[in-house]
């Protein structure tokens, strides 16, 4: 007789929707690939190009040191969640809100208003679909780093009003109300034991507003607390699979199953270190040296000098360790689908926020190669459309619906005093 624990484990495995992909026996045609490219709404839930536009880069010009520019987006990308990234250094002297507002402004002014024929401001799933019909790229925003709210639910509400539609509860730094993965070698270790009471109120207020809760970068306990508290589906905007690559920024199989049960979706990150165990192991000493240099290079005021410094660093890194590959991306997608189901996987590239992206997927214009690889793996056109954007649109609609259900509820007014 099975023990109760083993029986429960077996039941949970049987309950998970698993797709056993079978390789195609007939060649994939270019017509099939082109049809999916036209019809799918490719949604990238995390792109860090605002960190460049805020200092003067024009997205319509070639991006020599990164992956994101208009020429490579058009015709391939349906919607972009521009990352409103607020580095932990802005916490000092309460500069986080200032930086957040600057980053929101660069998306709204330097991207959307500057290029109205190519981008359409979007805040809802319906907006994304409308932009696709107009052959424009839907431009959305997500905050990266919960410290951006400076422990104020009033600021959270202000950011929602300015167009923010998800917030990553932490970045690499633990804040006053949520534990981050980046503060610990072991993501199961936590200073706050996950979310504080105020942190749980942040999640509840995000549900009330209709802002997606993002658990990328959080400690494992923070993830489970967010799952327990949220009454709407949550997302991992840019995380991959820890069973394939042991990097602690990735999600365990149990976390993937819990996210699927919640109705959410995980968006596969294209950082080489999160995709390839080979790259992860070989690059740790190199990245420890490179990351602070990259952060310093990003602070260079002159755009040309900044680009030159970044390009030099990227060239040095690629010469030392060969990048991850398109096959690594397929492996993570396939693993996530087998563990969590086809309805709970998407794309969150982290383009222009990482030092290495997979060979063969250097920008959005390379996605037809991923489409072909997934077709060859046995995925149908319907499956691929779900992964590319359909699943995220479903989550957005569910979050919007939950906000409507909570519309009559008064705003939460918990103070930070209860967080400590």
From TrEMBL:
PROSITE patterns: RENAL_DIPEPTIDASE_1, RENAL_DIPEPTIDASE_2. This is Membrane dipeptidase. The keyword Translocase does not apply. CDD domains: rDP_like (cd01301). It comes from Granulicella pectinivorans. PANTHER family: DIPEPTIDASE, MICROSOMAL DIPEPTIDASE. One of its GO terms (biological process) is proteolysis. Pfam families: Peptidase_M19. Residues 1-20 form the signal peptide.
């Amino acid at each position: 007789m099975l023990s109760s624990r083993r029986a429960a484990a077996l039941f949970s495995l049987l309950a998970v929707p698993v797709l056993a992909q079978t390789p195609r026996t007939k060649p994939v045609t270019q017509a099939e690939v082109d049809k999916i490219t036209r019809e799918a709404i490719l949604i990238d839930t995390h792109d860090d190009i605002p960190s460049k536009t805020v200092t003067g880069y024009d997205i319509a010009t070639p991006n020599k040191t990164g992956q994101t520019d208009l020429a490579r987006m058009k015709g391939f990308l349906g919607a972009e969640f521009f990352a409103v990234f607020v580095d932990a250094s802005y916490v000092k002297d309460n500069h986080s809100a200032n930086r957040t507002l600057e980053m929101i402004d660069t998306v709204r002014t330097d991207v959307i208003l500057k290029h109205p024929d190519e981008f359409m401001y979007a805040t809802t799933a319906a907006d994304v679909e409308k932009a696709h019909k107009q052959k424009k790229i839907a431009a959305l925003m997500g905050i990266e780093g919960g410290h951006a709210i400076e422990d104020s639910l009033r600021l959270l509400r202000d950011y929602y009003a300015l167009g923010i539609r998800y917030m990553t509860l932490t970045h690499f730094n633990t804040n006053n109300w949520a534990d981050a993965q980046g503060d610990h070698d072991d993501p199961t270790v936590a200073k706050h034991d996950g979310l504080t009471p105020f942190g749980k109120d942040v999640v509840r207020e995000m549900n009330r507003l209709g802002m997606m809760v993002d658990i990328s970068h959080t400690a494992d306990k923070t993830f489970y607390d967010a799952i327990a508290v949220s009454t709407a589906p949550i997302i991992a905007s840019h995380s991959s699979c820890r069973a394939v690559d042991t990097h602690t920024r990735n999600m365990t199989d149990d976390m993937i199953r819990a996210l699927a049960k919640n109705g959410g979706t995980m968006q596969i990150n294209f950082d080489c270190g999160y995709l390839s165990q080979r790259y992860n192991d070989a690059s740790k000493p190199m990245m420890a040296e490179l990351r602070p240099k990259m952060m310093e290079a990003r602070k260079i005021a002159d755009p040309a000098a900044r680009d030159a410094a970044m390009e030099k660093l990227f060239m040095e890194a690629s010469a030392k360790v060969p990048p991850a590959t398109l096959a690594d991306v397929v492996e993570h997608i396939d693993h996530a689908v087998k563990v969590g189901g086809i309805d709970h996987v998407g794309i969150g590239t982290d383009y222009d926020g990482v030092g290495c992206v997979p060979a063969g997927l250097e920008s959005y214009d390379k996605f037809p190669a991923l489409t072909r690889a997934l077709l060859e793996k046995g995925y149908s056109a319907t499956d691929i459309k779900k992964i590319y954007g359909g699943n995220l649109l479903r989550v957005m609609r569910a979050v919007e619906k939950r906000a409507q259900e909570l519309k009559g509820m008064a705003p939460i007014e918990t103070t930070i005093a209860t967080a400590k």
